[in-house]
Specification:
The structure is a homotrimer. By secondary structure, chain A is of the alpha/beta class. The first copy, chain A, is built from 11 helices and 9 strands. In chain A, strands 7-6-5-8-9 form a 5-stranded parallel beta sheet. Chains A, B, C: It comes from Coprococcus comes. Chains A, B, C: Heterododecamer (2C3:3R2) of six catalytic PyrB chains organized as two trimers (C3), and six regulatory PyrI chains organized as three dimers (R2).
């Protein structure tokens, strides 16, 4: 039995197969409409996350399966002091596969150790959110046609941004990848990613403070939010906040075939006027999130459709 | 693609077709049991409303479809500052149709503008609640056999009662309709309905303060709740509260074929002793609410069953 | 139409049939996979209980049916002042069967009186929790092969433990049953069970304060939690708390074929080191909980599968 704890759980070859499957699902959804008939997905969300929960649920339903679970700790038995280990043993009697979201890092790993059904880590604190990374990879591969030979701009809060760290770890396994790290000084990519991942693997990268300086030369722009609270002082925030807001003006500086991704939800870091730009693919990304989760559920359940 | 924002979105002819379909569903439910197989309804409830949510969910399940969503803002990503526009674009990737309930007036309209799937307004603040009005119309048509030639008593809080205003707007499109407006002075039907709708269309109406005075002559009695807080002073409340409580005694004054409707939930404005009276149809109304929503889902999805 | 309000609603013969059906479901789940196609279960949980709710939902889904409802009072219309009687009349229009959990004793009985669909009491305050008792009985019968000729140890809070009282009431209907009541003085089985049930029916029992004294001689050990707050003084709690924690050492005193049951969730009254002991069947119990609820749903809906 197999779980998904980290985006690196799958080898590059396995990821290729997973994304091929997702591509086939996109092309022939009807082939898969009953693949999980009689199967149940449990969504165990100890903190609310509508997007991630509904994406898993839609994926299971698209496969003809059923869904049960809870959407916040308040409506779970966690309030009665039950351990995650006990909860998953219980849920193993109710479902065939489960997706777990938990505020504590490592909770899904504990679940996996005690589970008799496949466990998907649907986000554990600031630690991992592997299905988001798989979504990002599928979006890039589907719309760009490749995962190698890419210059990727990562913009915003690179210090705390879990999705950014995961994406870097996932992309450095492909050839000829280059990063442009776009953030304020306070929110630079931390040393344990810059040195231990990029430097160690000799991945080229540059660091810039202004999005405008990076835009002309990117294949992919991955946007994340810069929260005001992250800045050390008000002055810096006021000086820099517009650097990290993508608008129509900035989009004019970007290549015609650059793609803009965002893990969502966005607040104001991408102006709504950008939404109609064909390069803005963050809502397509949501759709790819469903396809990759369908492929993931099939793979973890070892279900094959001819 | 079509949405349902207001009960007036459908012409009288379209409503007739919708109610004919609901009637066929009532008569032959098995014909429709798989009409929405493989389709998903998203219920996006930014404020709780068990009745309305479950009615939509039951409707979709009766059609063989699936349901996903959230039942309160607390378990949604609204808490992360996501706009309704972004949420609906996300949900468009997860579902084929959605029902949205929101405390802010106009929120479903914003959703509809950014949606790529049909949107049903399941109530937006004090503004509209069109599926309730469709339910009321279907109940009257099914049990009374007609939507014209009716004398309708509207009782209770006519000032703030959203369902009352919608029902008036819907009924004045039929011939030979007459209203009796039964309320305390403080809770009279507001001028923008009385003058702009009733007077402008020359719809006859009378205003009375006591339910007993209106009862002997009605075809339909539509009850709503009178909240104590609405009264200007305690004295008025004490003097009048019994005027608006329907009990067995008052029912004796009513015609043998008068129907009592109520949008529910009721608190004490209809005594439980009335429940067994065959003229009390407010629980049948709940059932008609499921049929009309089944018809609505089929119509908005443009699904036809032979 | 039939409801389940108390574990004694079914005669011993009816229980035998119910458990036979559960056994057939366990052996041939595929036979029952579509038995409830097109049917809906409503889960009306006025207080959260993940285990009980998900067990009912899994049961209905295993039968090919659908599920709708609410998981806490906050997301229900109870907050609008609707009575349980009115809610169940509404839900009768939405579903074919319902499971209700309510903090107030007797609420499911009120629901049953006004319902036009079968109602399952899924726990009402400290009163009844019949599906737990049915689960306990099925677990014992399936794994022990019998419900008579048993010496059953009941350990922990025997004063307030609802599941313990129900289990006693259910087991005294079988032949040659003997109980060992293991609890601190403060948490002894109350007189209305000891005298009115055990003494009246001449059921042999002994009372002991230490689990170790009872273990060597039991067929079944039914564990429950002892909450610190229940003790009159800190001193007693400190002196006795370890008496009621089942660990590997204590398990060595027990017969090789003794079974350990627990209604769950457990906190620390069973050490996790016991989980791998083949005699620890509290997680199997969860699975039997699904089978018995499947059998119950079929029975209350009067659905027969050949």
């Amino acid at each position: 039995m197999r779980h998904l704890m980290s985006p690196l759980d799958f080898s590059v070859e396995e990821l290729d197969k997973l994304m091929d499957l997702a591509g086939d699902i996109e092309a022939h959804p009807e082939k898969y409409a009953h693949a999980c008939a009689g199967k149940k997905l449990a969504t165990l969300f100890y903190e609310p996350s509508t997007r991630t929960r509904l994406s898993h649920e839609a994926a299971m339903m698209n496969l003809g399966g059923n869904v049960l679970g809870f959407s916040s700790a308040a409506s779970s038995s966690a309030t009665k002091g039950e351990s995650v280990a006990d909860t998953i043993r219980m849920v193993s009697c109710y479902a065939d596969i489960c997706a777990i979201r938990h505020p504590k890092e490592g909770a899904p790993m504990v679940a996996a150790q005690h589970s008799s059904i496949p466990v998907i880590n649907a986000g554990d604190g600031g630690h991992q959110h592997p299905t988001q990374t798989l979504t990002d990879l599928l979006t890039i591969r589907s719309l760009k046609g490749r995962l190698n030979n890419l210059k990727i701009g990562l913009c915003g809060d690179l210090k705390f941004g879990r999705t950014v760290h995961s994406l870097i770890n996932a992309l450095v396994r492909y050839e000829n990848i280059e990063f442009v790290l776009i953030s304020p000084e306070e929110l630079r990519l931390p040393g344990y990613v810059r040195k231990d991942v990029l430097d160690k693997k000799n991945i080229p990268y540059t660091e810039v403070e202004r999005l405008e300086d990076a835009l002309p030369d990117l294949d992919i722009l991955y946007m994340t939010r810069v929260q005001k609270e992250r800045f050390f002082n008000e002055e810096d925030y006021v000086r820099m906040k517009d650097f990290y807001i993508l608008d129509k003006g900035k989009m004019e500086l970007a290549p015609k075939d650059m793609l803009v991704l965002h893990p969502l939800p966005r607040v104001n870091e991408i102006s709504v006027e950008v939404d109609d730009d064909p390069r803005a693919v963050y809502f397509k990304q949501v759709q790819y999130g469903v396809y990759i989760r369908m492929a993931l559920i099939l793979t973890l359940l070892d279900i094959h459709v001819d």
